[in-house]
Amino acid sequence: MQPGLQTNEYVFINKQAYLFHKPERGDVIVFHFPHDTTQDFIKRVIGIPGDTIKADLTHIWVNNVQLKEPYISTPLNPVAKTWKVPPNDYFVLGDNRPDSYDSRDWDFVPMNYIIGKAIVTFWPLNAIHFIDSYPNVYSSIKNSTSG
């Protein structure tokens, strides 16, 4: 998740965050890896149920809106492809796109695999900061169900 999160940082996870609402685009979540639930991953939600995600080699679009992502390390995608996010699933990407094992490789995260929302780093002490969900990046994207 570099550059926003660094190796060996400890992150506070709000495990009740999604009791009353679903994950939103931009949320940084912790979840059980769908292909090995003994492993937990941390990634950013890019697509919610019903979204269409399109990637070329350097850009990502959500419902035909190209993302302007100030949080990524380098705009790089291994393949050009389009995904349709199924009901109750989420499309997630790491912020370190050239070196992230994410939905581009293995598709979707089921809602019931999500542990919680990453809120703040708390260790090391000199690196404490809130984790930004960058709502302005996603504000112009219409949900596919609303037209």
Key features of this structure:
147 residues; mainly beta; Umud Fragment, subunit A
Which CATH first-tier class of the domain at 10-48 and 88-132 would you pick?
Mainly Beta
CATH fold category name of the domain at 10-48 and 88-132: Umud Fragment, subunit A
From the helix content, strand content and strand pairing, which structural class follows? mainly beta
Q: Main beta sheet: strand number and arrangement?
A: 7 strands, antiparallel
- The gross shape turns out to be globular
**What is the helix fraction of residues, given as a range?**
under 10%
Note down, in words, how this protein is organized:
Strands 1, 2, 3, 8, 9, 10 and 11 form a 7-stranded antiparallel β-sheet that branches. Strands 6-5-4-7 form a 4-stranded antiparallel β-sheet, with no helix packed on it. It is mostly beta strands and 147 residues long. It is 5% helix and 37% strand. The termini are far apart.
